[in-house]
Amino acid sequence: MPTPTHKPTSMPTTTHKPTPITTAICVPTPTPTSSVEILYGDLNNDNNVNSTDVTYMKRFLLGRLNTLPNPEVADVNQDGKINSTDLTILRRYILRRISSLPI
């Protein structure tokens, strides 16, 4: 059986290339999380909870200190208020009667 041969033609040939299909993909962006650990009771931001922080709390509660560098860490019982209860809890933590903050 003879093998077919292709002869060149003068007619142009067209080749169809498939059209690429683009599909949008929604990838959820992760919510950024804070990598900074909160040290409750560290009112002066020295990375220690000690009697100096108790002094800051007392001065703030007596109105001798207008603001705290980071009020969130002063609310050691997380009730949304900074008051004498927080001072008592902070003192008890310093005296090691409470093992962790916040309570």
From TrEMBL:
Ranges that cross the membrane: none
Region feature (Disordered): 1-22
GO biological process, one term: cellulose catabolic process
Gene3D superfamilies: Dockerin domain
Composition skew (Low complexity), residue ranges: 12-22
Dockerin domain boundaries: 36-103
SUPFAM superfamilies: Type I dockerin domain
Biased amino acid composition, Polar residues: 1-11
UniProt keywords, alphabetically: Carbohydrate metabolism, Cellulose degradation, Glycosidase, Hydrolase, Polysaccharide degradation, Signal
Protein name: Dockerin domain-containing protein
InterPro entries according to UniProt: Dockerin_1_rpt, Dockerin_dom, Dockerin_dom_sf, EF_Hand_1_Ca_BS
Molecular function terms, GO-annotated: hydrolase activity, hydrolyzing O-glycosyl compounds
